[in-house]
Amino acid sequence: MTAETASDEPDAGTRRPDQPLRRGWTTGACATAATKAALTALITGEFPDPVEIELPKGETPSFALAFESAGNGYATAGIIKDAGDDPDVTHGATIISMVSPAPPGTGVVFAAGSGVGTVTRPGLPIEPGQAAINPVPRKMMSETVQSVCAEHGLPADIAITISVPGGDEMAKQTWNPRLGIEGGISILGTTGIVHPFSCSSWIHSIHRGIDVARAAGLTHVIGSTGSTSETAAQALYETPLIAMLDMGDFAGGLLKYLRAHPIDKLTIAGGFAKLSKLAQGALDLHSARSQVNMQFLWSLAETRGLTHSMKNRILNANTAQEALEIAGEHGVELAPDIASRARQVALANLRGAPVDVEIIVTDRTGEILARV
User: Fold this and answer.
1) 176: Cβ–Cβ under 8 A, 6 or more apart, which residues?
2) Rounded Cα distance, 100 and 40, in Å
3) Distance, CA of 274 to chain centre
4) What is the distance in angstroms between the CA of the first residue and the CA of the last residue of the chain?
């Protein structure tokens, strides 16, 4: 899954309870299948359709071709990506591979075609100046080329250009601009399979964002629960885009990685409800996996001087926002305590790592309610 910027309200991506979720295929798997079809056609003049590939864990899916073309010294094949039930921005994209002979002794070389990004910053698994095709897809395509060429007694000196029509627009909805990947999407995947609503890809994106920030020598990063709080935090600091980490619901993923790979200062910005969960000790802030405890909010309100007559209203509030408003009507501000306690939780999870922590709590409009 490609992580997209999340809203502070509400959680996106709801599972359908009535049926199992359908898995899909990564851009890397699609690129590998397209490469195999194109190379086979380059050598034999015939496009296999469907084309079968072997994934890293041994599965052998088949892919139907959506596009094919051949000319003097090249062949091109395209496959439409099916991400299954995952909310992937690249679902439905056409992944195209053009292959052509490379100079003797070159081996397999890769290039970014239209809609595929180019790496411009250090800290990623691909060096700056290279096509944004991750290591596992490169390995899959290289092994496929070597296998097909060996079948026909040919050296595996092949140039592969991967392109994705419209990939430059798709990339605007991903982390690529922040990570310094310009011109399009990345070709991703470690198993070839997209598991729907997987949390791991988002967390991995957070990790890569930290890597890029560290490699760039940044001393301050900002993790936000959504676009509203991110905008509010950005207005306070003149930080480069790569300093903005789209934490989403994964506070734990951010803090645990910073524990091992510290940066001098971390700002966590989020809406009142999300940071109330962090203040309670939750590290996964998604509504399906943690909830705001109204008894917890009442205990803070009582400490701040809210009269006991308001207890039932707080305890029966439908949302954290309603509890916040009830307290506010009586001159009691809950956000400062939420910020303070959220900071304590963050520091506890950093376990002494040299990271200074700031918490910013915002309302739904982006107004800052507390900053600790």
Assistant:
1) 117, 132, 182, 184, 185, 186
2) 11
3) 19
4) 33
Q: What is the CATH number of the domain that holds 110?
A: 3.30.2110.10
Q: Which helix or strand (DSSP H or E) is residue 89 part of?
A: none
- Assess whether 246 and 334 both reside in one domain: yes
- Which letter does DSSP use for residue 121 in this model? S
Give the tens place of pLDDT for each residue, 61-74: 999 999 999 999 99
Contact assessment for residue 175 and residue 122, using Cβ atoms and an 8 Å cutoff: no
Q: Give the global pTM.
A: 0.71
d(CA 189, CA 166): 20
Kindly report, residue by residue over 183-224, the tens digit of the pLDDT. Answer: 999 999 888 877 665 577 788 889 999 999 999 999 999 999
Q: Do the Cβ atoms of 193 and 55 come closer than 8 Å?
A: yes
* Residue 81 in domain: yes
The values of phi and psi at residue 360, to 5°, are -120, 125
Q: What are the tens digits of pLDDT across the range 31-58?
A: 999 999 999 999 999 999 999 999 998 9
CB atoms inside a 10 Å sphere around CB 244: 24
265 and 291 within one domain: yes
CA distance 66 to 69: 11
